[in-house]
Write a structure and sequence with these properties.
Elements lengths: L1 H4 L5 H13 L5 H12 L5 H14 L3 H13 L6 H14 L1 H12 L7 H14 L5 H7 L5 H13 L4 H7 L1
Helix pairs in contact: 2-4, 3-4, 3-5, 4-6, 5-6, 5-7, 6-8, 7-8, 8-10, 9-10
Amino acid sequence: HWLEQLHNEVPDVRLLAAFALGDMWNRDEKVEAALIEVLTDRKENVRVQRAAAISIGKVARSQRAAEALLDAFIHNRLLDREYIREAIQYSLVQLGEPAVAPLVAALQSKETDGFFPVRRIAAIALAEIKAPDAVEALRKVMKDKDIEVRLAAAIAVGWAGDIRAIDMLID
């Protein structure tokens, strides 16, 4: 029923459906795919996209979901709306380990070079996930042009608990 309501004509109904699907904590791939579709639909209402982003963090545990969240952020340019940025960051952290590889890729991508909001979110999410296997990528970002990206990377390296962090932070 809620899956069908994601296609309702009324945005508020779609909004409620997206939140309801997230609250069900259903790890169903159909639910994940439907929420990703809503998130990545460039014509969708931004409030509905935000609800989908939050719900993805609750129901998904796949690398595909992390890639969709980052892709929506990068290609839909949703960064101009802070509440969507926060929802995407929240969901990436909730995904945990499956989000690490896509987040590291976002840090290293030429596509995000100079696109600081994505790099900041990636570094902060990696910090919150406390991903030790991301330390090397974060080390490289500690020389980023943007001070907030450098700071987020330094915090992430420290939170990861890797002994190499001490030397990196001293440099």
